[in-house]
Amino acid sequence: MKVNFEFGNHKVRLVKFKIMSQNAILLWMPDPAQRDAKILLACVNKTRYKGPEVDREMAAKDAKALYKAGEEKLGTDEKGFVKILSERSNTQLISINTCYYDMYGGSLKKVIKKETSGLFEHAFLIILQCAENPAKYFAKVLYKSMQGLRTNDTTLIRVIMTRTEIDMQYIKAEYHKKYNKNLNDAVHSETSGHYRTFLLSLLGQNH
Ligand SMILES: [Ca+2]
Q: How far is the CA of 26 from the centre of ligand 1 (A)?
């Protein structure tokens, strides 16, 4: 989707790109240090299986590997977390989470919070949230970007531009469910001029 509009004296053309959620995670990282860049590359480069099939046996193996890399170990082997969290499909991650709970009595979210910190923790939690319910995650990000005195336009435009049209329908539904307000109306009240027209055209019809 291409939209032309004028911004000051400039004619601007913005194109909506169709990219995977992994790439979006990359965008979320503010100026990552070299150490933290590993997970970003892992997320982008590895081919993540997208289908619905779940391998229970492999999930149990991964749960065990995560336990060894985290709770069982003094300190944390972050590489072990990166490998599993960046390579497994969303459905597989949900299965790993269930296995972990059954085997060790705690959720992966809790383990990540306990065993990791900083950008690693941030990225791992995003991956987990995206596996569970990506639309809910992005609805929350959009809501937060419009809170407070100043709207965070960078976040707002980044999320809206990087979601596919189908993703956006799910995000709008989650937004309405959680905040009891239409996303289009929220964006309308937080923006103005060509910028508003542009964002609303990317959001599509109000449902
Ligand atoms: Ca540990």
A: 26
Q: In the predicted model, what is the mean pLDDT of residues 102-108? A: 95
Residue 65 Cα to ligand 1 middle (Å): 12
Q: Is residue 27 domain-resident?
A: no
The string of pLDDT tens digits covering residues 154-186 is 888 888 887 777 888 999 999 999 999 999 999
Residues 40 and 100 in one domain: yes
* Strands 10-15 and 2-7, bridge-based pairing: antiparallel
Is 199's pLDDT higher than 70?
yes
Q: Where are the beta strands (DSSP E) in 53-196?
A: none
Domain at 151, CATH number: 1.10.220.10
State in Å: Cα 73 to ligand 1 middle. Answer: 4
